[in-house]
Amino acid sequence: MSTTETAAEHPAAPPSRRNWLSVFSLALGAAIIVTTEFIPVGFLPNVSQELGVSLGTAGLMVLVPGLSAAIAAPLVIVGAGRLDRRVLILILGLLVFLSNGLAALAPDFAIVLVARIFLGVAIGGFWAVVPSLGFRLAGRQAGTRATAIILAGLSAGTVVGLPAGQFFGNLIGWRSTFAAAAALALVIVIVQAVVLPKIPAVGRMRFANLARVFRVPIGRTILIAGTVATIGQFAASTFVTPFLLQNVQLTSDYATLLLLGYGVAGIVGTLVGPALVERGRMVTFAAASAAFGVILAVLPALAGAPIVVSILVVAWGMIWGLVPLALQTHMLTATPEAPEASSAMLITVLQLAIAIGSGVGGLLVDSVGLSSVFVVSGLVAIAAAIFGFAARKP
Questions:
Q1: d(CA 135, CA 145)
Q2: What is the rounded CA–CA span in Å between residue 83 and residue 65?
Q3: Which structural domains are found in the chain, ordered by start?
């Protein structure tokens, strides 16, 4: 039997070097997708000024991919049918390349949003398929670790996305930043084409399979709690750059460095998370949501103390790194018979939550100011923690 067949069909076997290379290639894919999703956060003011739209309207660059991903996740997983998951992953990577390239060349804001729709399709498809592959590639015993590595790519994308958007947006312009992201996306697709084995689909997914996820009580709890927490997170994180520059009055260079620290802390949180998640998935989620909610709520009151704000922003990144891992692991273990269906529904509601969060944040920014965004976001995250803790299994 070939290495390709072994990797795809014998998840109980100890993971080989190629298995782990495949896992890391998926982490790279996660990193470039999240980088692409969030680099605009770092240069929203630049796009707003050049294309003649308000800051809140520029925030649609985050809202549109989230909304598109929410719609695309179930459509992609059902439409893909029995298509080999390796082929699907490569197609989605090329879509990320296309999105970045089109955004770099866009003559107006409308075309930028079209490019971001393409990205949303890639996000929805990727996160619907990839999280469950950690267990298929690395086996049951190493599956949680493999999933954590893949999700660490999410935090790595934040490391690159937020500060890179800020730094390169000012250094070479937002168009060239998108172009560089396109080039990186193409390189990662080539790497994945080399190392990924064939990954046959496990059955054919139908919309009925997706609906069954909602019939699992703990599945509903995860979806609701995750949605509320994510709304709070992204209402605030979408506008963290203008908050740091305008309210805290940090220099552009310092803000870039701080956002880098935020992202690195997120990676640390994700990588140390398996030990906490294995002890209590919902408790970990609830505690993390409550903690970052408190941080967000108090940030505006501490805007005059930049050192304290810096420490809290880094802590926010580390704590948030626990949330996606807790949600994804809990969802996979709650519905082990339908991992792709549960992943598709989770990414649908979470991406919808990202869209809602960035949209609500934009409305608050344009109507009552930046400070209100963080206070409201913090309260929303705390509400998610209370719900998750109250609804957990005894």
A1: 9
A2: 24
A3: 3-391 (1.20.1250.20)
- Pull the structure tokens for residue 331: 């969802």
The per-residue pLDDT for 189 is: 95
Residue-by-residue DSSP string for 110-132? HHHHHHHHHHHHHHHHHHHHSTT
Rounded-to-integer distance, Cα 371 and Cα 297, Å: 9
Q: Name the least confident of 47-51, 146-150, 240-244.
A: 146-150
CB of 199 within 8 A of CB of 84?
Answer: yes
**Residue 15, pLDDT score:** 66
DSSP secondary structure string for all residues of 57-104: HHTHHHHHHHHHHHHHHHHHHHHTTT--HHHHHHHHHHHHHHHHHHHH
Give, in order, the Cα–Cα distances in Å from 67 to each of 10, 106, 119, 336, 394.
Answer: 36, 20, 11, 27, 34
* Alpha-carbon gap, residue 150 to 201, rounded angstroms: 19
The SS3 call for residue 200 is: coil
Ramachandran quadrant class, 81 (left: phi over 0; alpha: psi -120 to 50; beta: rest): left
Question: If 0-12 CB within 10 Å is exposed, 13-18 middle and 19+ buried, where does residue 24 land?
Answer: middle
Cβ 294 vs Cβ 378: under 8 Å:
yes
Q: How far is CA 91 from CA 182, 192, 376, in A?
A: 14, 11, 38
Q: Which two tokens stand for residue 388?
A: 């998750």
- Exposure string of 243-257, with b = 16+ CB inside 10 Å and e = fewer, is bbbebbebeeeebbb
The answer to whether 384 and 246 are in contact (CB under 8 A) is no
Q: Is the pLDDT of residue 140 over 90?
A: no
Q: How far, rounded to the nearest angstrom, does the alpha carbon of residue 146 sit from its chain's CA centroid?
A: 17
Of the candidate ranges 89-103, 222-236, 352-366, 372-386, the one whose mean pLDDT is the lowest: 352-366
Give the H or E element holding residue 141: helix 133-171
**Does position 6 have pLDDT exceeding 50, yes or no?**
no
Amino acid at 190: I
Instruction: Identify the helix (H) or strand (E) that includes residue 352.
Output: helix 339-368
Q: Which of 30-34, 35-39, 130-134, 334-338 bottoms out in mean pLDDT, i.e. has the lowest?
A: 334-338
- The structure's pTM equals 0.74
